[in-house]
Design goal:
five-stranded parallel beta sheet, multifunctional enzyme, 25% strand, Rossmann fold, eight-stranded mixed beta sheet
């Protein structure tokens, strides 16, 4: 692929300790076929030097508007970009961007860009939570920028809290989704709060055993990532997954169906949409053995008595009646009579949409791709052919957005 044919990405780097992590984001962008121009601030170069950015990107690196003036870089770089991503975005960079300042090449680029713009903030918790930063973030989001929620974790020194740069691989996924949508509306979930459940619950039998299922959480995580890329505030209730946290999502880890119910109901109180992609166990052991259940020679094990778990999807659908406009989406994993069983479940649960797919040992669970049919309470059927789970996620959000706007 010629350089002229590659998607053009501007990677802005602010002067924070997390600047070194942008090297990994740059590597992912270049190795996936993007033409990347790195525009660091002067402070960023105190953390990672110009030769590193030039070597990794294969493009020249400039920071000031007075360099290569004949090429008018302060206008041209932003005009020609297909995407601008600033990672890390410090509190200072967010403030200058929000107020339209243009005192270096990066802020000039942000003013001239007419493509999607992504900010990945990284700073101490107190700086992220300061009212000034909150106002600046709200301003940028209102103007159409995607400002990813920072991660929670270890910060500089001994501090821990919200403000850590999200995993570079997850920032890359947000960028990839924005570029993949092209001319499609990229911010149609802006200002919306969505809740997504993912993974599979585990119901303890004894200290070492549990009843569970094969769900990996990949479809739920794809739903969370695509919602972030479309501008939503995302709460992800994750049951027993081993996947990295999607950049920008507030992740609530849970284990059992009862824990998932509590977390989802709490998050759904102010949600515009709830998508129940998690595989929630229908039953749990009636009795939890305090010690490991032993195998005894000559004796058959005692039968395991089961009790029903709460029906979280049906409960959400019932509560949504008191929350005007809230959209509830369920998932149905079926092994036979897929559409008939899906229609029956849709009617029984009372949700607005139901994503039904056929599953099995070698189908759907843990795979990178999926196929399904999205059933609507209005009788509609939308087939989604075999493809990436992000494609199914976008179809779900397309229908959710239509229902939210219609309501």
């Amino acid at each position: 692929m010629d350089r002229s044919d590659k998607p053009r990405v501007v990677l802005g780097v602010s002067g924070g300790i997390a600047a070194y992590k942008a090297c990994e984001l740059l590597r992912r962008l270049t190795e996936s076929g993007h033409d990347v121009r790195v525009v660091p601030t002067g402070s960023a170069l105190k953390f990672v030097g110009e030769p590193t950015w030039a070597a990794l990107s294969g493009n020249p690196v400039t920071t000031g508007v007075w360099e290569d003036v004949h090429e008018v870089p302060h206008v041209r770089i932003g005009q020609e970009a297909d995407l601008v991503v600033v990672a890390p975005a410090t509190a200072d960079t967010l403030a200058r961007a929000a107020h339209g300042l243009a005192d270096d090449l990066l802020t000039n680029t942000l003013l001239t860009a007419r493509c999607p713009v992504v900010f990945a903030p990284a700073m101490h918790t107190e700086m992220w939570e300061h009212p000034a930063t909150a106002e600046n973030v709200a301003t940028l989001r209102r103007r159409g920028a995607v400002v990813i929620e920072p991660a929670v974790g270890r910060l500089t020194g001994k501090d821990t809290g919200k403000g850590r740069l999200p995993d570079p691989g997850e920032i890359f996924e947000v960028c990839r989704r924005l570029l993949a949508r092209g001319a499609a509306p990229g911010r149609d979930l802006a200002g919306r709060h969505v809740v997504v459940s993912a993974g599979g619950t585990r119901e303890p039998l004894d200290p070492v055993r549990f009843l569970g299922n094969r769900s990996s959480g990949r479809q739920g995580y794809a739903l969370a990532r695509t919602a972030v890329a479309r501008g939503a505030r995302v709460t992800l209730v994750a049951a027993n997954t081993s996947l990295p946290d999607p950049a920008g999502a507030d992740v609530v880890p849970v284990g059992t169906a009862v824990q998932l119910r509590e977390a989802v109901l709490k998050a759904a109180e102010d949600a515009d949409a709830v998508v129940m992609a998690a595989a929630v166990a229908d039953f749990r052991p009636a009795r939890y053995a305090q010690g490991k259940i032993k195998k005894r020679d000559g004796q058959e094990p005692e039968p395991v008595a089961l009790v029903r778990n709460p029906d979280v999807l049906a409960e959400l659908a019932g509560l949504s009646a008191a929350r005007p406009g809230q959209v509830v989406v369920g998932f149905a994993a079926e092994t036979d009579d897929v559409l008939a069983n899906g229609r029956a479940k849709l009617a029984r649960k009372g949700c607005d949409l139901l994503v039904v797919n056929e599953v099995g040992e070698d189908r759907t669970f843990g795979a990178e791709e999926n196929e399904a049919v999205v059933l609507g309470a209005d009788g509609s059927e939308t087939p989604v052919p075999h493809g990436p789970k992000e494609a199914l996620a976008d179809t779900v959000w397309d229908k959710v957005v239509h229902m939210l706007n219609a309501g």
